[in-house]
Specification:
heterodimer; A: mainly alpha; 25 helices; 2 strands; about 5% strand; B: mainly alpha; Helix Hairpins; about 80% helix; about 0% strand
């Protein structure tokens, strides 16, 4: 039954090849849209079928690797032999990720048919999107680090291509290149920042090969189980891999690319920069959970970075005015929660949050896309308001997503976020500080989400009379409704025992994380009064955040202005995103450019390299200038030399 | 007569031919010098042929004479063409084939 799992990957590849080769000839948007989303839909069907069949198997039978062919095989027979296959591993974790990628991906593809309608790059868009799905599936289904890295780089490439999809459009970066930046600058930023993280991933991978002698997940993790906790090399490996994760999953210090990535079309933001690609880092940490379990120091780093990112991004989200920027910082913040979960060894909780987040964040982005569509490319929420009458479906679904992300029961976000917060409090690696940061961030999340909802959909319209907002077409609203449904019920797969649920997702993932949990040797906490208390507290804080958000921006609009006047420094700091972009610009970008310009370009390149090339050419030219005088054009001179040569040879032959 | 005399004569005429080719400026004279060189070689070939009793040397002479005849035809044609163009057969004036 597992043998057909490569089909999941095959369909998007075929879609990419077909659209890439002949798509630009097709003038029929409908056909392109059906092919582009159909391939992903087929993948989803195969994955769903596989999942249903896996449900019927014993937990230990649910893992299977399909070998396709040997990719790299060198030094066979020696101790340093390297053998990497293109092989796909289906297990509880990867099938879950596959379902998210193809399921949410399919809905977003369908949505894109409506959103990208009339765009001259319609088929190019679907080509890139299919390539992205292909790369992402390689990432989650790979059975070794190298193939995973291939997918990792592939999604980075697609991210770059899609951020810069409208490469000639102006884009306000809010920092560098004011007024002249285009979306391709944002694309470059994303690519270059990711390169730093990928460098860490690469070094980590090489260290894994040195330390374990293989890149195969099974072999590496099998050999890791016999190591003792605190192994030095493993600490370095995990730290370097985590550096890769901070790049891909937009954590401190490499999160700066994600808000700028909003330059891309909104479905791209939903698919790549909210639901799937940015969670690759979380997936990677979960996949390597054994290694992380061996490195408590790294776990601490992961948890702290996650918690700090969650709070910091949320504070920036409080004051942004671009609807997509708010959601982007929200994504960074929620990814922080996932890493917090990873850091406190609550791997299943992190993956659970990844799942619910994929639903409600994709929904939020698609909803914002519908708003932007309706407002004719206006993204400033200060120029919106009162859209609920005009976009009823979008409003309802957006509201559901906002409640879900705020963590109000029984919406999906509540279960996953509360699970993380509880683990941050109760786990051996957790602490009350991490928990407090998490709860604080949750309150901020509720506040900025309802600020967004209030400013966008409620109150009076603040746009000009020439704008006539209208509800989006069916291809856009149907995905919204489906995602809204999942945002509501998605959390039911992980109802904790304390709320009389089976926590199905944790049980489902248990075999994947069992080796890591063996290393950690946790004592399960029985549900006690503390858990209920903390749960009530976090719900209370979320509710307070919602109430504040609605009150300030609906009834007491002067309060926001008042606070802005009262704390101008804090406001400016938040509005300017803690000046991180400026600091990076001053500390890294400008020096790099200056050094490249003065030393590398004008020094090394022009003076040394060009000097060598031009110098040798000049030398030869000046020598030739002298030597060419020999060619007089008079045949007798040549004949003289010829005879002289013969004489020399004769003399040499006679007297040798 | 022994073979040295023939060879000495052959060498002498050959050197006269070489010197003529190198030193004279008139194309016709240079041309004649080349014929001189060819014929001096023919002489030594015939001398060796007789000395060794091998007719292959004489056969080679016929080849040389045939080629020399052809060369004379082509060479004179070139000289005539040159003269028509430049009104001179002075080799020092024919020097445009250079840098």
């Amino acid at each position: 039954m597992f043998s057909y799992s490569p089909l999941i990957i095959l369909f998007p590849l075929l879609g990419f090849l077909f659209l890439g080769l002949v798509g630009w000839r097709l003038k029929n948007e409908k056909l392109i849209g059906i092919i582009g989303s159909g391939t992903v839909g087929l993948s989803f069907l195969v994955a769903a079928l596989l999942f249903v069949q896996m449900l019927g198997l014993q937990p230990e039978e649910r893992k299977h690797i399909v070998q396709l062919f040997t990719w790299i095989s060198t030094f066979t027979g020696t101790p340093s032999s390297l053998s990497v296959s293109v092989a796909y591993q289906v297990d509880q974790l990867s099938i879950l990720m596959t379902l998210i990628v193809t399921g949410v991906g399919f809905l977003i593809h369908v949505y894109s048919i409506g959103y990208m309608h009339g765009d001259p790059g319609f088929s190019r868009f679907f080509t890139y999107m299919n390539l992205f799905i292909f790369a992402m599936l390689n990432l989650v289904l790979a059975d070794n680090f190298l193939l995973m890295f291939l997918g990792w780089e592939g999604v980075g490439l697609c991210s770059y291509l899609l951020i810069g999809f409208w490469f000639d459009r102006k884009f306000d970066t809010g920092g560098y290149k004011p007024g002249t930046a285009t979306t391709s600058d944002a694309a470059k930023k994303a690519f270059i920042v990711n390169r730093i993280g990928d460098f860490g991933f690469l070094i980590g991978m090489l260290l894994i090969f040195m330390h374990f002698g293989s890149l195969n997940f099974e072999t590496v993790f099998g050999r890791a189980t016999v190591l003792s906790v605190g192994d030095k090399t493993v600490v370095w490996i995990t730290l370097l891999l985590f550096l890769g994760a901070t790049g891909k999953s937009a954590q401190i210090p490499l999160y700066v690319w994600l808000p700028d990535a909003m330059a891309g079309p909104t479905p791209v933001s939903a698919l790549i920069h909210a639901a799937t690609m940015v969670t690759a880092g979380v997936y990677m940490v979960a996949r390597c959970s054994v290694l992380y379990a061996l490195a408590p120091a790294t776990m601490q780093v992961v948890a702290i970075i996650g918690a700090l990112t969650a709070v910091m991004a949320a504070t920036i989200g409080l004051v942004q005015n671009d609807i997509k920027k708010v959601l982007a910082y929200s994504t960074v913040s929620q990814l922080g929660y996932m890493f917090l979960a990873m850091g406190v060894a609550a791997f299943a909780a992190g993956i659970f949050h990844l799942l619910t987040h994929a639903f409600f964040k994709a929904l939020l982005f698609l909803g914002s896309g519908a708003v932007i569509h309706a407002m004719h490319d206006e993204q400033d929420i200060q120029k919106m308001g009162g859209l609920r009458q005009h976009l009823p479906t979008t409003y309802k679904t957006f509201l559901i997503a906002a409640i879900a992300i705020s963590g109000i029961p029984p919406f999906s976000g509540f279960f996953s976020k509360d699970e993380i917060l509880w683990k941050a409090f109760s786990s051996e690696y957790g602490s009350i500080v991490l928990w407090a940061l998490g709860v604080f961030g949750a309150g901020l999340t509720a506040f900025y989400m309802f600020r967004l909802v209030s400013l966008t959909f409620e109150g009076e319209g603040r746009y000009g009379h020439d704008v006539h907002p209208h509800e989006a077409p069916k291809t856009m609203t149907i995905p919204l409704v489906i995602l809204a449904l999942f945002s509501v019920v998605g959390g039911f797969v992980g109802i904790p025992e304390s709320l009389l649920g089976g926590n199905a997702i944790e049980q489902w993932l248990e075999p994947v994380f069992a080796p890591a949990n063996d290393k950690l040797s946790f004592f399960p906490h029985a549900a006690d009064v503390t858990e209920y208390l903390l749960m009530a507290l976090s719900v209370g804080i979320a509710a307070a955040g919602i109430y504040l958000g609605r009150m300030v921006y609906l009834r007491r609009a002067e309060l926001a202005e008042h606070w802005k006047m009262r704390f101008p420094k804090i406001y400016a700091m938040l509005f300017n995103k803690y000046y991180v972009d400026e600091a990076y610009d001053a500390a890294i970008v400008t020096p790099t450019v200056k050094v490249s310009e003065t030393i590398l370009w004008k020094g090394v390149d022009v003076a040394v390299i060009d000097g060598l090339v031009n110098g040798s050419a000049k030398l030869i030219a000046s020598v030739a200038q002298g030597i060419r005088r020999v060619q007089t054009g008079i045949a007798q001179h040549y004949a003289t030399i010829f005879v002289g040569g013969i004489l020399v040879i004769l003399i040499w032959l006679i007297f040798k | 007569m022994d073979i040295q005399s023939y060879l000495l004569l052959s060498a002498t005429t050959f050197i006269i031919g070489v010197v003529g080719v190198l030193s004279r400026r008139n194309a016709i004279i240079v041309f004649m010098s080349i014929e001189l060189m060819l014929n001096s070689v023919n002489l030594s070939l015939v001398a060796f042929s007789a000395y060794l009793g091998d007719v292959r040397g004489q056969m080679l002479v016929f080849f040389v004479m045939t080629v020399a005849a052809a060369e004379a035809a082509v060479g004179l044609a070139i000289i005539i063409a040159l003269f028509r163009r430049k009104q001179t057969v002075n080799l020092d004036d024919i020097n445009i084939l250079k840098w």
